[in-house]
Amino acid sequence: MSRPFILGLTGSIGMGKSAVALMLRELGVPVFDADAAVHSLQGPGGALIPAIEAAFPGTTGPEGVRRAELGAQVFGHPEALKRLEAIVHPAVGAMREAFMIEHGGEPLVVFDIPLLFEKGHGQGLDAVAVVSAPAEMQRARVLARPGMTPEKFAQILALQVPDAEKRARADHVIDTGVSLDETRAEVNQLVRSIREKNPRN
């Protein structure tokens, strides 16, 4: 049975992935946002709150998961992290399957996966697009965020696969170091080429 072409979208912090995801949505491309799925599952009234509370007592409340408390129990504890992932990953997978059923008639769908290379989430994808910009532009964007410090930025970068390696492993590189119009033209061209190769009724 034919199915949509599945494009993975990723990129390091501050590279403009959210802007590119929005451009894709504006072109009518369904985008599955893995982070948004996790937030909805762990937010107020989220489906995973009871299971997370049972596994990690005291880490949830009316506002959903208390990130500081859960982080304290999980960060630096590989076994605890595995327990949490065993709760979260199947639920996100089920949401992704429902998304694919809903959009099964589309020529193209996008999975927005921030840690695609870091966590090995590339299985099942037909191609990967990496959003990239020059390092000095990335740094300026990230340090402009509220509460961000050079130290925090360095810690985040240390946990991410280097941009050069992501670009080397990508099937497509989307440049956000240029004007928005130029990036939009790149995104348009990529979507058009995939849709032409994978037309649907």
Short description:
This protein is α/β, with parallel strands linked by helices and 201 residues long.
Core attributes:
201 residues; 7 strands; two-stranded antiparallel sheet; alpha/beta; 14% strand; Rossmann fold
Task: Tell me what the structure shows.
- The strands form 2 sheets. The protein has a 5-stranded parallel sheet, with helices on both faces. It has a two-stranded antiparallel sheet with strand order 3-4.
- It is 51% helix and 14% strand.
- A hairpin with a 2-residue loop joins strand 3 and strand 4.
- The chain is an alpha/beta fold and 201 residues long.
- The mean pLDDT is 92.
- The protein has 9 helices and 7 strands.
- It folds into 2 domains: 1-30 and 108-196, Rossmann fold (3-Layer(aba) Sandwich), CATH 3.40.50.300; 37-102, no CATH class.
- The chain has helices spanning 17-26, 34-42, 49-55, 67-74, 78-102, 135-143, 150-159, 163-169, 180-197, and strands at 5-10, 31-33, 60-61, 64-65, 108-112, 127-132, 172-175.
Give the tally of β-strands: 7
Order of strands, widest sheet: 2-5-1-6-7
Q: What composes the largest sheet? A: 5 strands, parallel
Q: How far do the termini sit from each other?
A: 13 Å
Number of domains: 2
CATH level 3 topology of the largest domain: Rossmann fold
* Number of distinct helices: 9
Tell me what portion of residues adopts beta-strand conformation: 5-15%
Mean pLDDT comes to: 92
- The name of the CATH superfamily of the largest domain reads P-loop containing nucleotide triphosphate hydrolases
State the name of the first-level CATH class of the largest domain.
Answer: Alpha Beta
The H/E string reads EHEHHEEHHEEHHHEH
Helical proportion, percent range: 40-55%
Rg over CA atoms, rounded to whole Å, is 18 Å
Structural class determined from secondary elements? alpha/beta
| Uncertain ranges | none
What would the principal axes of the Cα set say about the shape?
globular
Second rung of CATH, namely the architecture of the largest domain: 3-Layer(aba) Sandwich
Multimerization status: single chain
